[in-house]
Each structure stands twice: as structure tokens, then as C-alpha cells.
Amino acid sequence: MAADLHSHTTASDGTLSPAELVGRARVAGLAFLGITDHDTVDGLPEAAAAARREGIGVVPGVELSTDATGREVHILGYYCRAEAGPLADLLAEMRAARRRRVEQIVERLRGAGVPVVMERVVALAGAGSAGRPHVARALVEQGLVRDVKDAFERYLGRGRPGYVPRRKLHPAEAVRRVRAAGGVPVLAHPGLMGDDVTLGELLAAGLQGIEVHYPEHRPRQVRKYARLAREYALIATGGSDFHGVGERRSDVATVTVSDAVVEQLREAARRNGGL
Ligand code: AMP
Ligand code: ZN
Ligand code: FE
Ligand code: FE
Prior knowledge:
The protein has 10 helices and 8 strands. It has an 8-stranded mixed β-sheet. The longest helix is centred in the middle third of the chain and has 26 residues, at 86-111. A hairpin with a 2-residue loop joins strand 3 (57-68) and strand 4. The relative contact order is 0.18. With 275 residues, the chain is α/β, with parallel strands linked by helices. Helix 1 runs parallel beside helix 2, helix 5 (132-141) packs across helix 6 and helix 7 (171-180) packs parallel to helix 8. The structure holds adenosine monophosphate (AMP), zinc ion and fe (iii) ion (2 copies). Adenosine monophosphate (AMP) binds next to helix 5 and helix 6.
């Protein structure tokens, strides 16, 4: 019974709607799909309805974008009470900041002679949580770059002409906010962030899991994070971080964990007072 605990929909920067994503997960043979859109839980009701029809389980999640002294850190939160209350308010603020950031990115690019059109970026983001991938897709559409990867390398990555730093939410604060909403906080893809980012601080804030299995984690990184999980009694999660066909290397279900991990997350959420 396989579970992919990390994926994105059109509620943030994925290209499949929640229902389409759940359908793809069922075809791929998953028993459980975790949906973890950036700074929003708006895709979850549609996903839950589709999951009932398809006969698979949806693990409700969110991925919070945070910053630890200039390094980007993502915190996953599972089974959060986020439809209303302090976490919902924080997510709404983060989405508003995302909109402003995307506008600033477009202004910077235009100032640098890259005529990306704001209206296209807005249309691509729709009502969802806006982000750099939407700018990247507009650049592709307008023939200004080859593909999304090229857009990040030339214009959107750190240190590139369209780079705008994000609003500063500390990862430990994100962990506390997830816990306060009854959710289970998990450090996302630690292998992407350089070394051992403030793990001590995150543990003190109430971290309960670490994403051990991830498409871009090398075997030695998987071993290292599995060891850290045992050492600190953290739930060892994993997932594909699927964003859409052709957007990145990994498809849904290319990285999975056992359904026993879902049970561990559920049990932790029950103790925390989560969903
Ligand atoms: P943002 O949340 O607006 O800062 O955008 C970050 C998102 O862009 C990540 O979650 C990925 O989905 C995507 N991303 C980051 N780097 C790349 C890259 N090099 N190529 C393609 N997508 C990327
Ligand atoms: Zn993303
Ligand atoms: Fe992430
Ligand atoms: Fe992600």
C-alpha cells in the first residue's frame, strides 16, 4: 500500500486540478496521496471529493515557504485545521505576499528588458497561490525562454535578474504555527537546502517529521536523513513533489512510502488535536 505524501495542484503552482491529480494518483496505483500546495489548503475539498469517487485516500497537507537567514526552507504540515483560525490567516497573508512578489519579479524583468506580460502571469496563476513557476510559464509561452528550467536558470533563481527575496517567515515559526493548528510539521526535502538547516531549532519548536525520500535525494542523503529520523524519533516521510507532466523529472508516485507512515501522521495529528 503505497503513499506519495508530497504533490501540488492548480491551487498553487501545479498544472493539474485537484481532481485530475487524484485521478492520476489512482491510475498510478497509490493507496494514499498527500496534497501539499504552497501556502494554501484551497485544493483539499475538491481532492477529498475526487478521492471518495476514486477510492483512494487523500492526506491533507500544506507546504509553507520560509526563510532561514537567506536559505529557503519548506515546512510541510499534515492534517492541519486551516480552514479558519490563525493558520488560515497566516496562509492568506503569505498568498498576498506571493502576489506582490510576483508583481515585483515582473517589474524587475521588464526593467531588465525582458518583456514578460503581467496579465499572462495573473491568468496562469488564476485564483491560486501565485509563484515563480507562473512567471516561468509566461516566459515560456512568450518564447522568451526554452522551458521552465531555463526560466529559473536565466531569470528567476537566486542571484538572477528577476530574483526577489521572499517575505521572512522563520521555519521554526512555521513549525509552531502548524502545531498550533493541530497539524504535524515535517521538514521538506532537507537535501535541497544545504546542510542540517537549524534542525535543533526546528526540533525545539515541535518538528515531528522529516522528508527522507525525495526525487532529488541521493542514496547517501536518504541514509543520512533516515538516521536522523531514528535519532530524533521523527516520522520519516517521502513523496514525489509532483507539479505536472513535463515540469520536472518526477511523476506522481515515483517516490512513495508505506501506508504505515500515513498511520503515524494520523496518530500524531490525533494527539496534536488536528483533523
Ligand atoms: P516560489 O514558491 O514562487 O518561490 O517558487 C518556487 C517553486 O518553483 C518551487 O516550489 C518549485 O515548484 C519551482 N522551482 C524552483 N526551482 C526550479 C527550477 N530550477 N526549475 C523548475 N521549477 C523550479
Ligand atoms: Zn512548487
Ligand atoms: Fe518544496
Ligand atoms: Fe513541493
